[in-house]
Write a structure and sequence with these properties.
mainly alpha; 2 domains; two-stranded parallel sheet; 9% strand
Length: 267
């Protein structure tokens, strides 16, 4: 397999003269991968994450060698960075594969348990038995990934085609709210005429608000990304909401006050 990767690079990228590669146990080159420096002076670099046949001691196959590779090494830190910042594609793997099982046990489970943030990755699996919520939870807990189930291979082809194409966001004009429903805004947001972008997010909020099964929508992000402006703009311009109660704790922090005002609304 190691020779096949290098041969594939040679044939597919004849413009690349580099024939070198990096192995997981080479600390300095791995650190250059982690920092991104390797891409400054190399084209299409190759990293053998589980060893190279030319160095038998680097081959990662059993439980002990997995522990060695993924326990407090430069490669372990690099892998965590990739998992949380990049988009990874695992080709030809089964979730019963020893590789993923060991990675999940040594790295992913620990980072998820320690609060590693929302999952960035999606696993596409064929649904071969009746669906249950526990099936999704197993992959979320074990691999820190959301699962997208498909019924047959024709559906899988549709999913792959959609991934290969760019999403198209269609923005259609809609009437302004007639203002018949009650509204109260405590702590004014940015001016609406200065708000721009976020078309895909606004469309998603409209879909959720129109769905009778959605009872609560929560919007979270670090400070300064425009949550207040987004929600304020959406509440003023969407026509789904019959009543709008907007409150910011920047204006009033006492929980009793917001509960009292909510109870009095819309009087």
């Amino acid at each position: 397999m190691t020779a096949a990767l290098l041969e594939a690079r040679r044939r597919l990228r004849p413009d690349v003269g580099d024939t070198g590669f990096t192995v997981w146990n080479q600390s300095y080159p791995v650190n250059r991968w982690a920092s991104g420096d390797v891409f400054q002076d190399s084209q299409c670099p190759v990293l053998f994450a589980h060893g190279h046949t030319g160095d038998p001691a680097s081959i990662v196959l059993d439980h002990g060698s997995y522990r060695q590779a993924y326990h407090n090494t430069p490669y372990r830190r690099f892998f965590e960075t990739m998992w949380f910042q990049q988009h990874l594609v695992f080709v030809g793997f089964s979730f019963n594969d020893l590789t993923l099982a060991q990675i999940a046990d040594e790295v992913l489970w620990q980072t998820a348990r320690q609060g590693g943030g929302a999952p960035r990755h999606i696993a596409m699996l064929r649904l071969s038995e009746p669906y249950s919520d526990q099936m999704r939870k197993e992959f979320l807990d074990g691999y820190h990934a959301q699962v997208l189930f498909y019924p047959d291979h024709s559906a899988l082809q549709t999913l792959l085609d959609s991934l290969a194409s760019r999403p198209v966001i269609v923005v259609t004009s809609k009437p302004k709210p007639v203002g018949s429903g009650p509204a109260r805004f405590v702590h004014e947001t940015t001016e609406d005429d200065k708000f721009t972008g976020r078309g895909d997010v606004l469309a998603r909020l409209d879909r959720w608000a129109a769905d009778p099964t959605v009872r609560l929508i929560a919007i979270t992000a670090v400070g300064g990304l425009g949550k207040t402006a987004l929600v304020g703009y959406w509440l003023r311009h969407n026509i789904v909401s019959e009543a709008r109660f907007f409150w910011s704790f920047y204006r009033e922090r006492e929980p009793e006050e917001i509960l009292r005002s909510a109870e009095d609304f819309p009087s």
